[in-house]
Amino acid sequence: MNRPLRVLVTGGNGQLGRDLRDVLAGTVPAGGERLGAHDGFGLLPPVSEGTFEVLTTDIDTLDLVDRTAVREAADTFRPDVVLHCGAYTAVDACESDPDTAFAVNALGTRHVAEAAVDVGAHLVYLSTDYVFDGTLERPYVEWDLPNPRSVYGRSKLGGEMEVHAVGGTSATVVRTAWVSGAHGANMVKTVLRLAAAAPEAPLRFVDDQHGCPTFTADLARAVVRLALDRRPGTFHVTNQGETTWFGFAQATLAAAGLDPRQVVPIATSELDPPRPASRPANSRLDNAALRLSGLPMLPSWTESLERLVNALSDAA
Of 46, 56, 92, 216, which one's alpha carbon is 20 to 30 angstroms from that of 223? Predict the structure, then answer.
């Protein structure tokens, strides 16, 4: 191919979308680092002027629910790859507005998948740990049966179904969990903000929900690699290691040089007010498809947390 590879990104102004744009531009996302030859996700094609031609869209420039608009955008740009990050991610708000959740996350994904097929583009759809009910005692592998307990989870599973039905073998589903990055609102920024606002006040986080923190600087490179390889099927992609929200908050304070004892463990049942949407008690995702395919894993979540905290500190 003599022309640049064309990449259409939906949700391009979100925290993952911003880091995808950095990766495609050949820059290091905030909180990331240049990886050596030992890490396959660092071995992207050399990025120089003209390597990728990127069209970034978001809710203000492309309404995913508008089938005609989505198809016209794809037909005009003619992407080789579509990275579909656009979603309605307000988990609790989805409970009271299921029509919007399904319109964006399921029907909107149908439109994106259809448009990708029309132009022969490989589609990568970002999904979530919320497609599982969290009742297993082990980490979930890609072949476990989904059973979402929230509207958000059901709507994202609807998107997965559309991808497999419409996109077929030229589509990838990437499930991830507990995402944080340099852009947008997330757990790391919340903990640091709360600690700065009330250094002496206890910070209460639940210790009965378990998961694998994931950092967009690492996730973005993995998504691009899977897209360029045009690997079909479902992949779980998280940073390595697991913790609870309580442990995550403690580690965040420690990485910032603050006292982790400020964090106090509570049970989910003690949340005040209680959350409208059910959260999986077990959000741990086994990256089995990556491992069994011989693909590299993302770094340890604690290593990537330290890099993100340092990046946020440098930017402050």
Answer: 92
Q: Is the dihedral of CA 282, 286, 289, 295 positive or negative?
A: positive
Fold of 5-186+213-240+284-298: Rossmann fold (3.40.50)
CA–CA separation, 252 and 147 (whole Å): 31
pLDDT at 34: 56
How far apart CA 8 and CA 83 sit, in angstroms, is 6
Which pLDDT belongs to residue 204?
97
Tell me the backbone φ, ψ of residue 180, rounded to 5 degrees: -135, 150
| pLDDT tens profile 105-124 | 999 999 999 999 999 999 99
- Pairing verdict, β 179-180 and 214-215: parallel
pLDDT at position 28, please? 73
DSSP H stretches of helix in 103-147:
108-119
The two three-digit tokens of residue 34, written as one number: 């240049």
Phi, psi (degrees; rounded to nearest 5) at 40? -60, -25
User: Which residues are designated catalytic?
Assistant: 152
CA-based end-to-end distance of the chain: 42
Mean pLDDT of the chain: 93
What H or E segment, with its residue span, contains residue 9? strand 5-10
Domain ranges in the chain? 5-186+213-240+284-298
Residue 43 has pLDDT above 80, yes or no: no
* CA neighbor of 7 nearest in space, from 159, 249, 165, 223: 223
- pTM for this prediction: 0.94
Q: Which amino acid is at 139?
A: P
CA distances from 305 to 23, 32, 149, 284, 312 (A): 19, 10, 29, 17, 11
DSSP annotation string for 202-243: -EEEESS-EE--EEHHHHHHHHHHHHHHT--EEEE---B--E
Res 38: pLDDT:
40
Please write the tens of the pLDDT for every residue from 246-281: 999 999 999 999 999 999 999 999 998 999 999 999
